[in-house]
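Study this pair:
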Amino acid sequence: MKTAPALITEYLDAVEHESMSLHPEARQELLADLREHIEVALAERPGEIREILRQTGDPRTIAATALHELGSPAAGSAPAPHTGRPRSPAWLPVALLLTNGLVGMLTLSEVAPALLLLFEALDLAAVVIVWRSRHWTAGRKWGGIALALILPGILRLVWNLGVPEDMDGRGAWRWVLLVATLVLNVSGCAWLWRTRRR
């Protein structure tokens, strides 16, 4: 009886064979996405590899769908235009998330609630754009959003709720927190920018 790694390799080889008309980079992205999907599903449901592969889809169908969406470039020509959901530019959510790091500095002092509400709306828009985007895999989306938004938000929440106003050295610790949130935010944005699909 074949082991899970052998079945996964066999399945991905079949997808690769069926998608040979794709541009090599697009084919590698497809295979990487499939491998990640299968590994996540297997971690949630160990021992069900055959069922997971069945639910993932027939390799021929997956390849045909990818060819339809991405086009099959002939030698020297550009790929056919994508006919599905248009891609938002990758810089847009990264820029929106980056504003969170700058606004994070403001939230450590008195700011008009309406202004904070506006920036929270921009953060929400950035998260929605990232999650709907095809520029990143699910794992990369989680990593970028966690670094750029969730962890800095938790630090600011701990500061606002847990640090007393009359604590000795509050001003110095405020600057440490400010730098930490900014570094996390910039790291998350850099991660998203570096790992985007071009």
Notes: The helical segments are 4-18, 24-44, 49-56, 59-70, 91-106, 113-132, 138-162, 170-195. The two ends are 40 Å apart (CA to CA). Confidence is low (pLDDT under 50) at residues 74-86.
